[in-house]
Structure formats: structure tokens, C-alpha cells
Amino acid sequence: MKAFKLRSPAFGPGGEIPPKYTCDGSAVSPPLRWTEPPPGTQGFALLVADLDDAMGVSVHWVLYGVPVSVRELPEGVPRQGTVAGVGTQGLNDLGGTGYDAPCPPRGPAHRYFFRLYALDSALALPPDQTKGDLLKACSGHLLARVELIGRYKRKESSLNQPPHPCLLAGALREGRQGH
Fold it and tell me: For position 72, what pLDDT does the model report?
């Protein structure tokens, strides 16, 4: 059996996330694809987080209840609780549902991990669960985990533009400087 892998046609492992998928662009979720999961897989869950946030790991996307038949997520998954053919979305660390685009502050590139979990159970959680809720529900059901890391550093020209609304909301609510 081939190894279970997660990839994106938008960026390679360790590569730069294109601005389109960040606060400097359209802020839509990138397309993701994965290979055949381990036998016994009944569903998938996805977490996306910034490993370099000044306040610790910052969660950008919580997705669960992804059907076992799905092998890719399209670009621009709508920011709503349940998306037909995709799954159910939880809360990101800014308190919103769905994908929160990378928007790091001035400085070195931040690393964003896209972590896909193959589970032996189809999770039937309601929308707007947190990362903690998801990990608790996954406990004892994990068959495999794959990861894709992308990097993003804001360009100097984008730093002179008004801050993205997500950045303002997060900074005001949590005293954070980026995400």
C-alpha cells in the first residue's frame, strides 16, 4: 500500500503559501488533496495552525466529519458550519467558522501546518467545535496523521496597506499582533 500523503496543488511541502490564500489576497482556503488512507478509515478531520504565532500555536481552521469518500478539498471552502460534500467546520482562534487566512506580522515567515487525520469513526459533531473539542472526539480513533507545512511572510508592500479585518479583530480581542 502507498503511504498516506497530503499535498496541495497551490504550494509544495515547506513552500510558500501563495498570497491568494492569505490576508494579502482573497483569503480563501487552498485546495488540498490526499492519497488513499489506511484500511479501516471511516472519515477525516483537518487542523490548520500557525506554529510561530507570538502567543503560541494559533488555530486557523478546524474541519471534521469529512466523508471517507473525499480525497480533496476545493479551493475556497465556504465559511459556514456545514458544507455539503466537504464536512463540518469548527471555530478558528479568531472565533470565526472555517478558514482564517494566514496574516503574520512584519518579520520572518511563519510556518502553517495542515494536518489531516484518518479516523476509524465518522465524527458526527455539530458545527463550531474548537480544536480541543475535536482532539477529544478523535481520542482513540486515530489511524494515521499526515502533514503539509507551508510558509508565509508578508511582503513589504502589503505591510503598508490597511490591516485585514481578521487581523484587527484578533489583535483587538486578544492583544495579538498577527496570525
Answer: 97
- Is 170's pLDDT higher than 80? no
CB neighbours of residue 23 within 10 Å: 23
Domain range annotation of the chain = 6-174
Q: What angle do CA 72, 1, 39 make, to 5 degrees?
A: 70
CA distance 80 to 124: 16
Which superfamily, per CATH, for 6-174? PEBP-like (3.90.280.10)
Instruction: Determine if the pTM surpasses 0.90.
Output: no
pLDDT tens digits, 76-126: 999 999 999 999 999 999 999 999 999 999 899 999 999 999 999 999 899
CA dist 160 and 62 (Å) reads 30
